[in-house]
Amino acid sequence: ILRLTDIAKTYVLGEQQVPALRGVSFAVQAGEYVAIMGASGSGKSTCMHIMGCLDRPTAGSYVLDGRRVDGLTRDELARVRNRRIGFVFQGFNLLARTSALENVELPLIYSRLPRARRRERALAALDRVGLADRAGHTSTQLSGGQQQRVAIARALVNEPAMVLADEPTGNLDTATSREIMDIFASLNAAGATVVMVTHEPDIAACAARRLLFRDGLLVADSAAGQE
Amino acid sequence: ILRLTDIAKTYVLGEQQVPALRGVSFAVQAGEYVAIMGASGSGKSTCMHIMGCLDRPTAGSYVLDGRRVDGLTRDELARVRNRRIGFVFQGFNLLARTSALENVELPLIYSRLPRARRRERALAALDRVGLADRAGHTSTQLSGGQQQRVAIARALVNEPAMVLADEPTGNLDTATSREIMDIFASLNAAGATVVMVTHEPDIAACAARRLLFRDGLLVADSAAGQE
Ligand SMILES: Nc1ncnc2c1ncn2[C@@H]1O[C@H](COP(=O)(O)OP(=O)(O)OP(=O)(O)O)[C@@H](O)[C@H]1O
Ligand SMILES: Nc1ncnc2c1ncn2[C@@H]1O[C@H](COP(=O)(O)OP(=O)(O)OP(=O)(O)O)[C@@H](O)[C@H]1O
Ligand SMILES: [Mg+2]
Ligand SMILES: [Mg+2]
What we know:
Largest sheet of chain A: 6 strands, mixed
Distance between the termini of chain A: 16 Å
Low-confidence stretches of chain A: none
Mean pLDDT of chain A: 94
Strand order of the largest sheet of chain A: 6-7-8-3-9-10
Number of strands of chain A: 10
Oligomer: homodimer
Radius of gyration of chain A: 17 Å
Bound molecules: adenosine-5'-triphosphate, magnesium ion
Strand content of chain A: 25-35%
Number of helices of chain A: 7
């Protein structure tokens, strides 16, 4: 479903250059379940943002669903993203003065669904992560783990073909993490491609394949040599 | 060093009441190392904010360093907080368009230190968490785990008597978590009281005592029955 070839990303800060990704190449088949691990600052989120069409690489090619996307305009990227990809941000990225329900509804705004149907689907997604009773709270009225679960619900509400989750259980207790991992497992069983960044080995063990990043490079791939 | 007695906190949202804490009582001796665990939404962060003088309880008493603080004004609370407590927020709470160095310097602004000395201490704190080379980056130019470490450095720069850390390793890989836990261990060895919220059993195991929260109540205390 996706192929990264020699993807590089360099940030420029004044006179300084920060090479966040230094030539990363790998492919993911439709329906795979991949875990990404690596040290803090090794480039995982940067790679996830490029994969999620939220950012463009400085160099290299990104082919998604058979189509080269690294050269697309912002609008074209947004359209690809909204239809096909659900993204759970490491920092949640919830709208501040907006309720949990409205935050989860957001990806459905561009769909043709009438308002009542959007509300219904957003409420069902919140219920799935155990937050039906927090639908009216804004993000400052939610605990850290509740904010994280709203971000997860928002990523799922559009029933995306590919889910990219950046540290989705970082603020969740073991029992709640288990429930969230069950959701990802059932999405994957239903055919969705799941790519998840995590630092917890127990969570990574739920995936069929593991990628290891270090200093902007892919240094290990549990699927390598299995073609 | 601190004693909570029947601490309750109820949030009011329009007509609805959310009882985040429903009568929590425990004491912590100076120099202890305590871990707090519990399900998402069980009241851990709410309790930490009250302990850190960042919020006031709806009911109950909070005695810190022999002094009743639940009735203090905002200014008085701020003074107690700044002198004695280092707080690592679950959501980091870094200033957005401000460099990592300036964020870490912030608690020193009220001290009598000259600017050069403040810079020096802030840089030393950043170096301690492995981020000396990221001093000039703003929070949007840092990875999730780097932002978390800046929040940790900021909490330590004032050499506080008590450190309250809310999920300080939620975004850190195992190796970096180990380094951060070593910092907390050495602070505790030097006499600081450490209270840490975590959902990871390995991290909780570094503490000498564990508190378990559920639905706004303290349901277990590994020190109970040991007086
Ligand atoms: N400002 C607020 N207004 C209304 N309800 C709130 C507010 N802040 C928190 N709550 C509610 O209080 C409860 C406890 O929140 P708290 O942040 O203390 O939980 P927590 O144990 O830290 O959870 P987590 O592990 O998810 O971080 C939650 O159910 C939350 O929805
Ligand atoms: N906008 C930016 N400007 C400059 N440097 C940046 C920017 N964003 C990220 N970086 C740097 O790029 C590197 C990779 O960042 P990235 O967020 O991909 O790391 P990560 O692997 O997700 O880390 P973590 O596990 O801590 O979340 C980091 O060293 C970071 O400081
Ligand atoms: Mg990251
Ligand atoms: Mg919390």
